[in-house]
Write a structure and sequence with these properties.
about 30% strand, 15 strands, 8-stranded antiparallel sheet, about 230 residues, mainly beta, single chain, 7-stranded antiparallel sheet
């Protein structure tokens, strides 16, 4: 029996393109993103649509050439089965359209995850539910009390030991902002008087100069000849 390479795999559990019970499925990928009616496999930064859901609700391989695959099997729409080969699966719930939304912690690890029409199950634990196949996912208490009932649009699957590719986020400035220099102290310019009238309390200096007495000057003269 061949050992599956590390990575995340997608298989069809029932439905017209149903995979065998021991078949790992399509993969491996770095991560698989399930949003709306399609599943995208991401590998080395490149995405590829690997599964589509028809109007009848059944999932099929995106490379299937038959548009009539919904009528080839009476086994119902079936589920998507996600596995990780020798590793295990981590599940991430995300919603790219909501800025500043608190990220839900990754759930798992699980040996396998089944995605049905109305629920997501990890090792038989119900992780999220929805009322129809076009509705967003509503998290259960498996995500923690603070996230119970939270609504998310997309599912991201990644294998343990491999980091999920995060969607672009606004960059965070790491450089320290320039410190503002202290402003030099403001020196008040001397006020120029608008009126030259002397103040009543203090007599002007020119009056003081006029009140000064002239100094006594002694002139030395020679004595008259006798």
């Amino acid at each position: 029996m061949a050992v599956a390479a590390a990575g995340i795999y997608l298989a069809f559990d029932g439905g017209p393109d149903g995979s065998k019970a021991d078949d790992a499925g399509i993969g491996p990928y770095d991560e698989i993103v399930l949003r709306g009616a399609r599943a995208v496999g991401e590998r080395e930064g490149l995405g590829k649509v690997i599964a589509l859901r028809s109007s009848a609700g059944s999932w099929r391989d995106a490379e299937s050439s038959s548009s009539e695959s919904d009528h080839k099997s009476g086994g119902g729409p079936g589920d998507l089965r996600v596995s990780a080969g020798r590793a295990q699966v981590l599940v991430r719930f995300s919603d790219d359209e909501v800025a500043g939304q608190t990220a839900v912690p990754d759930l798992g690890p699980f040996a396998r995850v089944l995605v049905g029409t109305h629920e997501v199950r990890g090792d038989e634990q119900t992780l999220a539910v929805r009322v129809s196949r076009i509705s967003p996912w509503q998290l259960t208490d498996r995500a923690g009390p603070s996230f119970q009932g939270a609504i998310r649009e997309a599912l991201v699957f990644v294998a343990t030991g491999h980091l999920a590719v995060n969607h672009p986020r606004p960059g965070v400035k790491t450089s320290e902002p320039a410190r503002s220099q202290p402003e030099p102290p403001t020196v008040d310019a001397p006020k120029v008087p608008t009126s030259f009238a002397p103040e009543e309390d203090a007599p002007p200096s020119v009056w003081v100069e006029r009140e000064r007495r002239a100094p006594n000057i002694y002139i030395s003269r020679p004595d008259p000849k006798r």
